[in-house]
């Protein structure tokens, strides 16, 4: 089983225009279709919970963390953000959605500002530019979104290790909308569509992409926590019964 935690800052979910589209909340919508995969064990967490919903007891039992946020990035505790980053480096997968590009853990993993330009209420054609990638399985050559928030270049992130999707908008802008990075032993996928007042997460192709992303990001194993570097004996020292100092 892949242990999935869907995290939501849970701040815009009470807005009337958001409730009209996601009456149960964004995290419940996302968790709901992820649960359709019998190989996923899905839980939810929100920022208003203790330790922003991500204490060690949750993170240490999470294989893939799905992160949705918008206006509360600054409210995430720095220690929590650091723990998420360290967990990714040890092997946990991280799926960052839409305006989560400004999330503290994502910025820590990217090492850049992660800024971009934006405009809501545009048509988007999401092109599959790496059709042989596991995240693109069953998606087709493109996905059309009648209304989505335009995110435009320049997207201030490191060059993606793999670019799976490229967004084109009716205003003429393009955007690296589906990007993969490898960080330490972990995998990171950023996915641009998903503005809170648009019905993006109700669309089957988008759900397929996110299910694929979770499966792709799932680790084979995660390294245990190490408090400090340890002296490591060589094979010769082990055979001689000696310890490293």
Short description:
The protein is an alpha/beta fold. Helix content is 24%, strand content 29%.
Average per-residue pLDDT, rounded, comes to 95
What profile does the largest beta sheet have?
A: 9 strands, mixed
Q: Provide the low-confidence segments as ranges.
A: none
The radius of gyration over CA amounts to 19 Å
Give a count of the beta strands, DSSP E runs of length 2 or more. Answer: 9
* Share of helical residues: 10-25%
Give the termini distance in whole angstroms. 40 Å
Q: Helix-strand pattern, N to C?
A: EHHEHEHEHEEEEEHH
Spatial ordering of strands, largest sheet: 2-1-3-4-9-8-7-5-6
Q: What is the global morphology? A: globular
Count of helical regions:
7
Classify the beta-strand content into a percent band.
25-35%
As an assembly, this protein is: single chain
Structural class, please?
alpha/beta
List keywords for this structure.
globular; 29% strand; 9 strands; 245 residues; alpha/beta; 9-stranded mixed sheet
What features would you describe in this structure?
- The protein is of the alpha/beta class.
- Helix content is 24%, strand content 29%.
- The protein is built from seven helices and nine strands, in the order E-H-H-E-H-E-H-E-H-E-E-E-E-E-H-H.
- The protein has helices spanning 16-21, 26-34, 56-59, 78-90, 104-110, 204-217, 235-239; strands at 2-8, 40-46, 64-68, 93-97, 117-128, 142-152, 162-169, 174-183, 186-191.
- Strands 2-1-3-4-9-8-7-5-6 form a nine-stranded mixed sheet.
- Helix 4 (78-90) packs across helix 5 (104-110).
- It is globular, with a radius of gyration of 19 Å.
- It starts with a strand and ends in a 6-residue tail after the last helix.
């Amino acid at each position: 089983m892949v242990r999935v935690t869907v995290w939501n800052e849970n701040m815009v979910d009470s807005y009337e225009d958001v409730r009209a589209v996601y009456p149960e909340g964004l995290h419940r919508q996302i968790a709901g279709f992820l649960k359709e995969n019998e190989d996923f064990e899905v839980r939810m967490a929100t920022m208003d919970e203790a330790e922003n919903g991500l204490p060690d007891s949750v993170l240490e039992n999470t294989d893939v963390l799905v992160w949705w946020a918008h206006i509360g990035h600054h409210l995430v505790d720095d220690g929590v953000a650091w723990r998420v980053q360290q967990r990714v480096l040890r092997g946990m997968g991280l799926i960052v959605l839409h305006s989560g590009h400004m999330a503290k853990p994502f910025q820590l993993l990217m090492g850049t500002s992660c800024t971009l330009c934006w405009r809501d209420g545009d048509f988007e054609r999401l092109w599959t530019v790496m059709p042989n990638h596991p995240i693109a399985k069953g998606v087709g050559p493109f996905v059309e979104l009648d209304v989505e928030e335009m995110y435009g270049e320049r997207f201030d992130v490191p060059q993606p290790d793999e670019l799976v999707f490229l967004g084109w908008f009716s205003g003429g802008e393009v955007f690296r909308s589906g990007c993969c990075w490898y960080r330490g032993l972990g995998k990171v996928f950023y996915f641009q569509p998903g503005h809170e007042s648009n019905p993006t997460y109700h669309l089957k192709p988008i759900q397929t992409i996110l299910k694929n992303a979770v499966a792709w990001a799932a680790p084979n194993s995660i390294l245990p926590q190490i408090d400090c570097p340890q002296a490591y004996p060589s094979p010769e020292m082990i055979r001689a019964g000696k310890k490293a100092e």
